[in-house]
Amino acid sequence: MTWSEMEPLLEQACWDTLYMVGWSAVIAVVGGLPLGVLLVLTDRGGVLQNVVVNKVVGQIVNVARSMPFIILMVALISFTRAIVGTTIGPEAAIVPLAIGAIPFYARLVETSVREVDGGLVEAVQSMGGSTWTVVRKVLLPESLPALISSATTTIVALIGYSAMAGTVGAGGLGDLAVRYGYLRFETKLMWITVAILAVVISVSLSGAPPAARGGPPRGRPRGAPRGGGRRGGAPGAGTPPPAPEPRTAPAEVESVEPTKVP
């Protein structure tokens, strides 16, 4: 197969993969973020402590996250047909991809939010802050770098899921690699597909660290200066305060004997 024959196939497969992964990632973040926060809030010692709700939601997340994706796709065939009207193509693959990624991202969100300092939550509650205030002002801002990294991890997992979805007619790079690289013995095309997937994953991972470093360290309020002094070259800016001068020992007072009055 010549390059002129492979180029349109690769272009269409790339767009199908980006389409599936993009929409699935958006749905996973929208659905997994509140689910992960709910697991933290309803846990023991949480703001909305409810052991029953936490156990039920946790079990559902565990079962959905541990199920192999290829089995999940087959189990959701009827549901997918009811949602999009078909079980073949990128649109149909978005449904199982999103459902499989929501519990995956929810667990990552739970882990990230648990790392927030509990003292900040107690401080907001002591000032009369509501649960929504705790979530919006403390939990989400303080865990934002970890949430961004978790979203990147979810996108990488979705790329692998989309390749598996291609084996059952979803389209994309996985479908191209199976139909041409495996069934038609087009080894060159298969390795090009593998290289494209590696580049897409590398680009996704390389964009995470700058975004994750954008938030302040946990436990330090937003807007607080990093150094102990003032900005703009003022005395003590970024440098430790000078050591105090050692005190001099007080001069010894000579003892004077009281004069005797005759």
Describe the protein:
By secondary structure, this protein is mainly α. The chain is elongated, with a radius of gyration of 30 Å. 66% of the residues lie in helices and 0% in strands.
Topology summary:
Blueprint: H1 3-41, H2 51-66, H3 69-75, H4 77-84, H5 90-114, H6 118-126, H7 131-142, H8 144-165, H9 173-182, H10 187-206, H11 208-212
Helix pairs in contact: 1-5, 1-8, 1-9, 2-5, 4-5, 5-8, 6-7, 8-10, 9-10
For this entry, give a set of tags.
262 residues, mainly alpha, 11 helices, elongated, disordered C terminus
Rg from alpha-carbon coordinates: 30 Å
Tally the helices: 11
Strand content: under 5%
Give the SSE string.
HHHHHHHHHHH
Tell me, what's the shape? elongated
User: Mean of residue pLDDT?
Assistant: 79
Number of strands: 0
Main pleated-sheet profile: none
Quick summary:
This protein has eleven helices and no strands. It has 262 residues and is an all-alpha fold.
